[in-house]
Amino acid sequence: MKYNHVTPLCPTHGLEQPHTSLRHMSQGNPAHPPGIEGVKMGKVYYNLMRNLAALLVIFAGAILAGVLAAAQQQTALKTASLESHEGLTITAQPWTDAAIYKPKFPKKSPFTAGIVAIQVAFRNDSDESVRINVDRVRLNVTLSEEDKQGLQALSPEGVAEVVMNPKAKDPSRKAHISLPGGGGGSSSPKDKKWLEVEQAARDAAVPGNVVAPHKTMEGLLYFDLQGQLDLLGSAHLYFPEVTALEKNRALLYFDIDLGHSGSR
């Protein structure tokens, strides 16, 4: 009898394909699905552009603020009384409108107590520092042909004293203005309100007496006119002592006619 040879089946035959599939499945998912890197790059670009836009807005705002400040300074120079020589220009502008005082004196205004503030600016275009003796500044007023007075500027303490102790408004007093001092000893108690007025006057006042080369210094000078604004029409603001420091050289005095100013 003839027998055909039969090849025995391998026990593992036919299991290779499942084994191969399991091997591929063991690799798992990729660390980052397709597109994740692109999304991250997009976020970085967006944040960068947003920060750049914010910087551009800030930079543009700073430039605009500088332009506006320069324009305001030029406007002030055009409307205020001024005198200029030897590289120094002094401008003076009386504040004769109560509304002008509100930003700097929101609670108690010197104007309501008869005080007039004069905004002064010292622009030094020279190459050396200049000192202005503010204590010797006088507001020369003419009460009559026979009565002319030089009023001394009030100190911040003097402003507070007048504001907290306003004089009774009497038309008969218009014939004379007492010569106030620079605000020495105070006769009224220095309570919270007094100190607030004194601090506000100090913050708005001329901050010093030396102007550096090619710089500008500005602030307020205060004079007790007892509400007689008409005196400003013929008043002169007199600066008798101005000195160039490097050479210790006295400059010519400044005498500014306030009658030609564009009062605010």
Q: What would you note in describing this structure?
A:
The protein is an alpha+beta fold and 264 residues long. It has a domain at 80-260. 30% of the residues lie in helices and 23% in strands. It is built from 5 helices and 12 strands. A 4-stranded antiparallel beta sheet has the order 1-2-3-8. The longest helix has 44 residues, at 36-79. The radius of gyration is 40 Å and the shape is globular. The chain starts with 15 loop residues before the first helix and ends in a 7-residue tail after the last strand.
Task: Record the SSE blueprint.
Layout: H1 16-25, H2 36-79, E1 81-85, E2 88-94, H3 98-101, E3 115-124, E4 130-132, E5 138-142, E6 148-152, H4 156-164, H5 192-204, E7 210-211, E8 215-224, E9 236-239, E10 242-244, E11 249-250, E12 254-257
Structural class per helix/strand content? alpha+beta
Order of strands, main sheet, comes to 1-2-3-8
Q: How much helix is in the residues?
A: 25-40%
Number of DSSP strands? Answer: 12
Biggest pleated sheet: 4 strands, antiparallel
Q: Give, in order, the helices and strands.
A: HHEEHEEEEHHEEEEEE
Mean pLDDT across the residues is: 77
Shape summary: globular
- What is the percentage of strand-forming residues? 15-25%
